[in-house]
Amino acid sequence: MSPSALLNDNDQHDNHLAPALKNGVHLNGHSTLTKGPSLTNGSLKAEYLLDRNLRKAYPVVKGGKGNYLYLNDGRKVFDSTSGAAVSCLGHGNQRVIDAVAAQMQTGTPYLASTFWMSEVVEELCKELINGTDGKMARVYLTGSGSEAMEATVKMARQFFFENNKNTPRVNFIARQHSYHGNTIGALGISGHVARRAPYEPFLMDNVHHVSPCNAYRQRQEGESNAAFVAKKAAELEATFQELGPETVVGFICEPVVGAALGCVPSVPGYLEAMRDVCHKHGALFILDEVMSGMGRCGTLHAWQDEDIVPDLQTIGKGLGAGYQPIAAVLISQRVVNALLDGSGQFVHGQTYQGMPVQAAAALEVQKIMREGNMMKNVQVQGAYLEARLKALLGDHPNVGDIRGRGLFWGIEFVKDKKTKEPFDLKTGIAQKVSDTAISAPFNMVMYPGTGTADGVRGDHVILAPTYIVTREDIDHIAKTASDVVHHVFSEL
């Protein structure tokens, strides 16, 4: 039922509950909702949901179609971020809706993976392996990116445990300013300072962080890609030596860093160099493509741009395009063989893994992407978005960098363009830009992030539109983004 329908039904709702209430409290002592949602200017502040921000009221969405979301206050908002880089096919895709409905009608949207197998689950996994050109071997399905990373960490350790129950390999190497998920294990892998801070006492002490591959903030003037990559490889090698190469399970990174840094891509040659260091010492090379994968960067998998195949890889978001909660781990034959030659099982399990209804949605999403040759559109429209953003915002005194790949672009804001000094955290630049963009008359979503410069300070916004955008849509996104940025900084 829509919020407006609930509001219109208040009198009947109150009368129905009246016999069990006294002063708005159930006779058993529990408080209850006696009125519908409280809307202010079309926004709703949750009273019963523990939302992400307990002090904030959010606009209420009543529907969506294509690139647009329709709000309760009558506005139509352009979703230029696909939510959190999730809704890659846009909203209301009828093919996916029909696929989900058909699976629901079988009476088995869920099957316990302990006992049963489903044809649609196996078909999805085959589709995903084919999407790697057979360079990965198996798929482990989960319900979220955090769960996929948690499974990856455990699988990586088990890879060595299968051959040696006393294996000394206990250390992971990840990167500063990275983000890999919200569970304790996934957060422990992450290097995002602010998100780790409240939970530091609980996080693993066997995770060690090297610097990210952030050319904008780290590369010296005139330094070549090869020289920059060589420094990164030397840093990783030094960390292996410090820990003892025989103690390292693997190295984990995002090919294009999403929310934590705002679409910072690795420079050409970086992934190959990091893989070579790992394999030199027998460690696993692990990629997190939950945000940057499944077509977001112009190839189905970001590693396919340079054909640097990982041992383990997480995927999510664009896998199911938001039509079902689904993510996965793609597993190389090397890792599969260790399990087959050892115990023959993965010592891990989740209630909602490999659900048929999740698989039905994701399979249809992947078929639509493949049949529609959407990677070509991502490449073409992504190149045009880059050109328009740089033309409209490249000279702005507070735009430090515009970077990304495919339809995954970040804009980093700075107080001083020459020194790259970030704004004070209290200024809240990224949130100001986001709040302004989503408001009238701009009516467009921009995804904000902080900690861009040093893990605490620094502001960026992300643009990650759907794979169905047209040239006209890109013109709208770029112009609106430019108008919003100019407006916000003119008001400071």
Give the tally of structural domains: 3
- Helix segment tally: 16
Which architecture of the largest domain per CATH? 3-Layer(aba) Sandwich
What gap, in angstroms, lies between the N and C termini?
A: 41 Å
Low-confidence blocks of residues: 1-34
User: How can the largest sheet be summarized?
Assistant: 7 strands, mixed
Q: What's the quaternary structure here?
A: single chain
CATH superfamily of the largest domain: Type I PLP-dependent aspartate aminotransferase-like (Major domain)
Q: What's the CATH first level of the largest domain? A: Alpha Beta
Q: Output mean pLDDT.
A: 92
Compute the number of strand runs. Answer: 21
What is this entry, summarized?
The protein has 16 helices and 21 strands. Strand 6 and strand 7 form a beta hairpin.
Structure explained in plain terms:
- With 492 residues, this protein is of the alpha+beta class.
- The chain folds into three domains: 40 residues, no CATH class; 277 residues, Type I PLP-dependent aspartate aminotransferase-like (Major domain) (Aspartate Aminotransferase, domain 2, 3-Layer(aba) Sandwich); 118 residues, Aspartate Aminotransferase, domain 1.
- Helices cover 36% and strands 17% of the residues.
- It is built from 16 helices and 21 strands.
- The chain has a seven-stranded mixed sheet with strand order 9-17-16-15-12-10-11, with helices on both faces. Strands 18-19-21-20 form a four-stranded antiparallel sheet.
- A hairpin with a 6-residue loop joins strand 13 and strand 14.
- Helix 10 packs parallel to helix 11, helix 14 runs parallel beside helix 16 and helix 15 packs across helix 16.
- The longest helix has 21 residues.
- The two termini are 41 Å apart.
- The relative contact order is 0.13.
- The N terminus is likely disordered.
